[in-house]
Structure formats: C-alpha cells, structure tokens
Amino acid sequence: MDAWDIVASVLVVGIIVVSLLSNVVVLICFLYNPEIRKQVPGLFILNLTFCNLLLSVSNMPLTLVGLITTGHPGGNHFCQIVGFLDTFLTTNSMLSMAALSIDRWVAVVFPLSYHSRIRHRDGVIALLYTWIHSLCFSTVATCQSWVGYHRLYASCTLCNGAGTQFVVFTVALHSLTFLLTLIVLCVTYLKVLKVARFHCKRIDVITMQTLVLLVDIHPSVRQKCLDEQKRRRQRATKKISTFIGTFVVCFTPYVFTRIVELFSPGYISPHWGVLSKCLAYSKAASDPFVYSLLRHQYRKTCSLLANKIFKRSSLNSSSLRMEISTRRSNNFNTQNNVQLPTNKPLGQ
Predict the structure, then answer these.
(1) Residue 157, SS3 per DSSP
(2) 227-267 residue pLDDT tens
(3) Listed residue (26, 17, 23, 20) closest to 302, CA to CA
(4) Whole-angstrom Cα distance, residue 140 to residue 163?
(5) What string of DSSP letters covers 218-261?
(6) 64, 161, 219, 282: which has the fewest Cβ within 10 Å?
(7) What's 161's DSSP letter?
(8) What is the CA radius of gyration of the chain?
(9) 195 class by beta-carbon count within 10 Å (0-12 exposed, 13-18 middle, 19+ buried)
(10) GO cellular component annotations, sorted alphabetically (predicted)?
C-alpha cells in the first residue's frame, strides 16, 4: 500500500463509521416517534436510511478490502451480488431524494391542500416506483454480466462492458437516475425558495410598516428587526443550497468519470477513481444530517432519548452507590462487633 491507499482507506473507514452511526440514529428516531412514522416524508427518509445502511455494510467494506489488498476482494459471484447492490442502492437513494423534494414542493406551494394531494398511499406508490426502477437497471446489469470488480474504483460495481449495448445502458442509467434527480431537485427546490422569499418579502413589508409607525422605537430594536429579516432570507437560501449542493458535490465526479470512461480512451488515474467513489459514498454519511437530524422534530426526539438514557443511568448509579454504602456499613458493624441500640424501655 502506498500513501494514497492509506489515506483513502482511512477516508473510507471514517465514512463507514459516520454513516452507520448517523443512519442508525435516524432509524431509532423513526421507530421511537410515532409522529414521524405518520408523516409521508418519513417513508422516504426510512427508505433512504435503509439504502444508506445497506450500502455501509456491503459495498463500503468491500471497497476498503480492495484498497488494503490492492486486488480482487472475494469471489466473482460474491462481487456480482455486491455490484448488483451498488447499482440498486445508489439508484434507489437518488430517487428517494427526488421524492423528498417533490413532497417539500407540494407542502410549501400548496400548504392548505397538502394532505389531500400527498397521502400515505401516494407515498407508498412513489416508493414502489423507486424500487421497480432500481431493480430493473440492477437486474439487467447483472444478467448481462456487466457488474464485477472495477480496479479504477477499487470496488464491485458496473464494469466496462463490450459493445454499444453497455454504452446505451450506462447513459440511460445515469440519465434516468442522476440527471433526472438533479433536474427534479433544482426545479422543486428553486420553486420552494421562490415561495419562501415571497413570504419573507411580505413579512419584511409588514415589519417595515410597523417600524415606521413606531416613531419612538429604539434604534437598536429597529436594527435587530432588520438583522432578523436578513437571517431569515439567508436561512432559506442556505437550506436549498445544502440540498442541491451536497447532491452535486457527492455524485457529479463519479458520474462524470463514468461518462468519460465510456467515450474517452485516455488514461484515468486510479486515485481520481477512488476519490470519486468515496465522494459518492459520503452522501450516505451526509444524508442523515441534511434530511433528518438537523430538523426540529428529529432533534427533539434525540434530546428526549438522550435525557431518558442519562436519567436511567443516573438513577442506576445512585442506587448502586446506596447499595455499596449499605454493604460497607454492615461489614464494618460485623467486624467490630458493634451492636445497634434497641428500643427497649429503661429498667428492662
């Protein structure tokens, strides 16, 4: 192993640890809070969490083995199974992000009719489509023997197939997953941002009218209101940028490398291939924070769980200390033959 392989291995280990811990926390919050389970976005987040967890325990460790051994990890049949999972889970997670963005767009643009437009049944149908879509591409790739160990990415994934069919399949796969999801994310979230800015502008106009009427208001209070308006606009822009930005940063290098690999006969550095694969893996570690753990409902659930755990451990430790203290006192009295006073009347 050279220095780059060591750095890449440490990076993959870090991604695995963060992805496992964060996605397990999201899963615990989903199981603990009934309100989250009742919401339609909870179905999409559960599906996304499932894909991220399975990717973290199947594909990522095998990539780590490929980096350490600098060779083919496992047998051909096992690698084909992992390659099937790589195509299925990556496609499924992308489509889940698209479904989440559509749900947010409906919730913001049509807030009064959201529950009639997006029902639990609609969420189940959307999830069913993501699974069928993902299974079709991954099954075709496996049946055509287009999955296996790829040295450029040090992982079991789509391999360079021969002929025009593989080129058409790869272009269709990335067009109907990555490109489709990117278009949906941009269209829906930009519309959400437009609506959010419109509401912020209305609130700002009302606030400014109120400030004009309050002639005797202190300048510091006036400045505080203006600063709050600015922070509100920045928060909306920051959230939308995070949703779209993390998707682009994590998946674009990998998809771009795949397309270049099809049409360019030139040499592609294995370092770049592994780095692009690590960036794609890092999306599984960032999704819990982008879509779940930074939201108020999940933070509140995590806080309740933490307080419950720490309170129970505190009660157990206090009772243990009392028990130890009682035992020590009894041992001391026994060793020194100390007799405790009785409550007999005087003269007996």
Answers:
(1) strand
(2) 666 666 677 788 888 999 999 999 999 999 999 988 876 78
(3) 26
(4) 15
(5) -HHHHHHHHHHHHHHHHHHHHHHHHHHHHHHHHHHHHHHHHHHH
(6) 219
(7) -
(8) 29
(9) middle
(10) plasma membrane
